[in-house]
Amino acid sequence: MANSFRAKLTAAALLLSFAGSVFLYATARSFAAPGGGLAVPTPTPETFDQAAAVANLRESIKGRENEPAGKVFKNVKNLAEMPAGRLLAVMQFGYSRSLGVDCTHCHTPDEWSSDSRPQKQIARDMHVMAGRINNELLKGMQSLGGRQAIVNCTTCHRGQVKPATNLPGN
Ligand code: HEC
Ligand code: HEC
Question: What pTM was estimated for this model as a whole?
């Protein structure tokens, strides 16, 4: 009798602590986007396996890695001259990692050529902006000794969707 009561108590305690963790997890997630970003939510990142997505894409372009991305993929505007294999590396390290997101921030998984997510066009515009900073403003800057200094996505984003305008604590 006493034993079964204790068992019930233990079960109730376990259930409560599980509910507590779920609550904490949900709360943590709702604060997970510092600075807000766009109002378009990132779809189901819990179920998205980025490593598997990249592996599938690599498999699907096997043997064509060195062909221009514009020939291998369907809807590439800025990066068309880049080898297709390199475009995938840019997606993984240049874009996702620089912004601290996964592919689903800019893509609906398995609809890679679709422009349905506004972040994808922002990323295109950012590429053009970085290119203009590099090629029009930094190129040959005499005070820097005339060498080509560069900015890229990481320079500003540093693992965050919204680049900081202040250091922490300011
Ligand atoms: C010179 C600094 C700078 C560089 C370089 C830069 N960005 Fe940005 N990026 C910004 C700023 C500023 C914003 C706007 C943040 C805000 O909402 O106020 C932004 C916003 C974005 C957003 C929208 C994020 C969201 O969901 O709200 C994306 C996507 C993005 N950048 C991608 C890129 C990519 C990809 C690159 C590299 C090709 C890049 N950025 C390079 C400064 C930069
Ligand atoms: C910050 C936004 C952003 C992130 C994150 C991102 N991409 Fe992209 N992706 C783009 C943009 C922009 C293009 C189109 C480039 C262009 O037009 O030159 C693109 C194009 C592609 C294409 C070509 C599709 C086609 O057929 O036209 C593939 C494949 C792709 N991305 C895969 C990925 C994968 C896999 C990830 C995650 C590892 C990822 N992307 C992460 C912005 C992003």
Answer: 0.82
